[in-house]
Amino acid sequence: MCEQLDQISPETAPHKHYVAFRYVSPLTEETVPEVVASGAKRVVLFSQYPQYSCATAGSSINALHQYCQQHPLPPDVRLSVIDRWSTHRGLVRTFAANIRAQLERLPEQVRRQVVLLFSAHSLPLRAVARGDPYPAEVGATVQAVMAELGHSHPYRLVWQSKVGPLPWMEPATDAAIEAMAKRGHKHLMLVPISFVNEHIETLHELDIEYAKDLGEKTGASIYRVPAPNDHPEFIGALADLVRTHLAEGGGVRPQLLMTCPMCTNPACFPAKRWIGETVNRA
């Protein structure tokens, strides 16, 4: 991405990326000192979650705020945020291209029978009830991809990766597969619509637990579309997002600065206020 960004935005080059994870190394508190030590004066917080959720991008911003309360950023560092990009043209085109490629591998008579199951990471219903924007943003991605495909196949949005006893968003991916197979839908294609790369929730949950194990149990043929990964269109989309952001002066979208209507997390409002103040101090 940075190589492409150097080419399409030479006026802001050179560009360098750093990675900060929430739960594995390198953590936020490990990466931020490295960025500061590099002498960087222009820092873009670029969420790799296309669809915003308080549990993902929001949690990452809270973690950054918590760290910076104890270790303030130098006053000459200019900060801005790319917090969501669920309908970016390059993301949509990548998913559509990957779906088409998988469909083209099937015989024509099978291809016509395929139902697309867009599988996204689920959320507890209590988070949805608080007003988390994630379900709507995932739905927006699905609608954009289907429009790009010309609504060529029937489809549904389903939800995976539930943990714990609390009620989560439904229909669950595995339950949907079983129910649809019983109704005679024997050719199902899983699309990991909220994931941009392969990891345990695609390689194990989708490929083994669902495509293999449930496929054998139900007698359905279950195909899986790859995540965007290193697809050239996707890498171009990432570079374009940053180029456009920088060209427009950076900053932060008003949507990020608002908490959920029924927010109960005491960390959210201070973190969002801090982001707004830090970005606008430039």
Walk me through the structure:
InterPro entries: Ferrochelatase, Ferrochelatase_AS, Ferrochelatase_C. The structure is a single chain. The protein is of the alpha/beta class and 282 residues long. It folds into 2 domains: 135 residues, Rossmann fold (3-Layer(aba) Sandwich), CATH 3.40.50; 136 residues, Rossmann fold. It has 11 helices and 6 strands. Strand 1, helix 3 and strand 2 form a beta-alpha-beta unit. The two termini are 26 Å apart.
Summary of the model, kept short:
By secondary structure, the protein is an alpha/beta fold. The chain is 46% helix and 11% strand. The chain has 2 domains: 2-86 and 231-280, Rossmann fold; 89-224, Rossmann fold.
Question: Secondary structure elements and their pairing?
Answer:
Layout: H1 2-8, H2 28-37, E1 42-46, H3 57-70, E2 78-82, H4 89-104, H5 108-111, E3 115-121, H6 125-129, H7 134-148, E4 155-160, H8 173-182, E5 187-191, H9 200-218, E6 221-224, H10 232-247, H11 268-280
